[in-house]
TrEMBL record:
The species this protein was found in: Phytoactinopolyspora mesophila
Compositionally biased spans, kind Basic and acidic residues: 115-124
Signal peptide: none
Protein name: Replication initiation protein
Bias type Acidic residues, positions: 77-101
Positions of region (Disordered): 70-145, 488-514
Length: 514
């Protein structure tokens, strides 16, 4: 009986089913003591499902553990800089004024810190030096420590259908939608800063940025502890971010773009040869007008959802899953997984993508040349439409920042430490069942020979060194090994009996996390 030949699609399907990386990096490992050489597969580590479903799912589960572990802590997490940091304001945008960084001579340009007339003043209570939420004791001896699940949205840009496409594309404000998406991360930073100041508490959060059906960004956040809902609504209403930038309403150059001039060390008009204003010169012109208005103001919408969540309840587990549900998707992906995109939705995506493609995303963006201004820190080779920021990509639709936002004292651990925790859980289950673990430090980069030199040398496998069949065989071997490990782990759990509650102090049912 002949063995059936496995093609690329079959191997990929099996790899996805077994959670094995479908596009691993090949690396050559040489043992300098024995001279043996072998090829090792290193997972690609992608976080997007369309790139590698297995690695993306692994990254999502790791985020789920991180979210769950820090949400309802009963003890302060320890961090490396606890002594020097009383709160987390340092991971936010510090200045209340909308500065543009250091100008010429290293002097920081800062706008007035006076709040807008249409924004309410927020309370400033004394600071508290705890990140833990309040606990409540019941007469029967139980202790509850509730926390919150918060959802913030953007304003309306026009009526949309159930599919999320505009009822009237002609009146839909695509420009504001694109600008709000480009600067949504700054608005989020300002919200956490305002909430911390208005409550006096170093608020801790695990938040994700996701698209709504209309493709506008919105924020889901697990917040440790509870706060008055009226205060949160007041903070949301009073939070804004202003862009004190030169005007970019109409492009000054479309067909003929500014060119680089070596003598002027900057960009000049292609016809007259006159130098374009530098970034600092353009801001000086803006400062010279006492009645100048910001180029754009970003605000949240009126729809706010606030829910109280208790630790260890099904509601908490559902919210953790909901927070991380779409982390493996691109912003422009169909969230329904039906694979069908209507012509109206495709046109909606095209319009947003066209707007974010040409709008400037930062002072250093090359798109400023279209508006007759040299970008900050200008250099030769900058071309409008070819900015390196991923915010301009069709897959991101303006959201070029991080999709997962975690405060410093959420757990006090890095993602690498959370990953080690998951491995420790598996190792404990196997050891309790009397099964010896493989020596994962066998090929450690820190292993040395008797003379102190590294024993193992890693080198990349260059294209052409490994043919396609051998690449598929390596993935097939990884699939077989994964199946064997899973079977071994399931047998170990059955032999070990019910999970030990002491395996993890913070993760309910931790033994099943792997």
């Amino acid at each position: 009986m002949t063995t059936p030949t496995l093609d690329d699609d079959t191997i990929r399907g099996l790899a996805v089913a077994e959670k094995v990386c479908v596009r691993p990096i090949l690396s050559k490992l040489t043992d300098t003591e024995t001279g043996d050489t072998r090829t090792v597969l290193i997972p690609c580590g992608a976080t997007r499902e369309q790139v590698c479903p297995s690695c993306a799912d692994r990254a999502r589960r790791l985020r789920m553990q991180q979210c769950r572990e820090g949400w309802h802590l009963s003890e302060e997490p320890t961090t490396d800089n606890d002594e020097s940091q009383d709160d987390d304001d340092t991971d936010e945008d510090q200045g209340e004024g909308d500065g543009d960084g250091a100008g010429e001579g290293g002097v920081r340009r800062v706008r007035s810190t006076r709040r807008r007339d249409d924004a309410d003043d927020l309370p400033r209570p004394p600071k508290q030096h705890t990140t833990l939420g309040r606990s409540f004791d019941t007469p029967d001896g139980k202790t509850y420590r509730p926390s919150m699940f918060l959802t913030l949205t953007m304003p309306s840009y026009g009526r949309v259908t159930r599919e999320g496409v505009p009822v009237d594309p002609g009146s839909y404000d695509y420009r504001q939608a694109a600008l709000d998406a480009l600067h949504f991360p700054k608005l989020i930073d300002r919200f956490w800063q305002n909430l911390r100041r208005a409550t006096g508490v170093p608020v801790q959060y695990f938040a994700t940025v996701e698209p709504q059906r209309r493709l506008a960004p919105h924020l889901h956040a697990a917040v440790r502890g509870t706060f008055p809902r009226a205060l949160i609504r007041q903070v949301v209403t009073a939070t804004y971010h202003q862009l004190w930038w030169p005007s970019f309403d109409e492009p000054a150059y479309v067909d003929r773009l500014p060119v680089w001039d070596e003598h002027a060390c900057g960009y000049v008009d292609p016809d007259t040869g006159a130098s374009l204003p530098t970034w600092d010169e353009a801001l000086d012109q803006l400062d010279a007008h006492p009645d100048a208005e910001p180029a754009h103001v970003v605000r949240f919408g009126t729809q706010i959802d606030m829910q109280g969540i208790l630790a260890g309840t099904p509601a908490a587990d559902r919210r953790v899953g909901y927070l991380t549900k779409y982390l493996t998707k691109n912003i422009a992906d169909d969230l329904n997984d039906d694979g069908e995109v209507s012509a109206a939705r495709q046109a909606h995506i095209d319009r947003i993508a066209d707007e974010v493609r040409w709008l400037p995303c930062a002072p250093t963006c090359a798109h400023w040349l279209r508006f007759g201004v040299q970008p900050k820190n200008t250099r030769p080779g900058q071309v409008p439409g070819l900015c390196r920021s991923k915010a301009h990509d069709r897959d991101h639709l303006g959201l070029g920042g991080r999709r997962v936002l975690v405060s410093r004292k959420w757990t006090g651990k890095t993602l690498t430490e959370h990953k080690a925790d998951r491995a420790a859980i598996v190792r404990t289950v196997l050891e309790d069942a009397g099964i010896d673990m493989d020596d994962h430090g066998e090929f450690s980069a820190t292993a040395t020979r008797a003379d102190g030199l590294p024993r193992y040398v890693w080198s990349p496998v260059r294209p052409g060194e490994a043919d396609a069949p051998s690449y598929l065989r390596l993935i097939a071997h990884a699939i077989n090994r994964r199946q064997a490990w899973r079977e071994q782990y399931e047998q170990a759990k059955q032999r070990a009996g019910p999970p030990d509650p002491n395996l993890s102090a913070t993760i309910p049912g931790a033994a099943t996390a792997a």
